[in-house]
Design goal:
By secondary structure, the chain is mostly beta strands. Helices cover 0% and strands 54% of the residues.
């Protein structure tokens, strides 16, 4: 199955997981189209000052893979900076959040997988 960029309608969420700003989500496939293997596969774009608030994962895990820019990641309470090409894994039972601390847009791929 192929999805072209022109066919992916963005959605926006204010205060995602309690974070600041309005986040853009480009979600090419539904969970059903992914065959239930993934809970989520989304390109997330944050403007300067935007962020996804800290949240816990239960019964699933999530990978953030930075595509453009840089952002502050909070991984189980520890802050670090992710730059394009860097990644973070939040296993079941752990917490994370991400914030764009720069003056340029930042984007990452968010992949949520079910526990097996």
């Amino acid at each position: 199955m192929i999805k072209l960029l022109k066919d992916i309608a963005p959605t926006y969420e204010e205060n995602a997981m309690g974070g600041p700003g309005k986040i853009r989500f480009d979600k090419p496939f539904t969970m059903e189209q992914l065959g239930g293997r993934f809970c989520n596969l989304t390109r997330v774009t944050m403007r300067p000052g935007d962020g996804v608030g800290q949240h816990a994962h239960t019964e699933n895990a999530e990978v953030y893979y930075m595509l453009e820019g840089e952002a502050t990641i909070i991984d189980d309470g520890v802050e670090s900076v992710l730059r394009a090409g860097d990644a973070q894994f939040c296993a079941d039972g752990h917490t994370h959040g991400i914030y764009n601390h720069t003056d340029k847009d930042a984007s990452f791929l968010a992949i949520i997988v079910k526990n097996v």
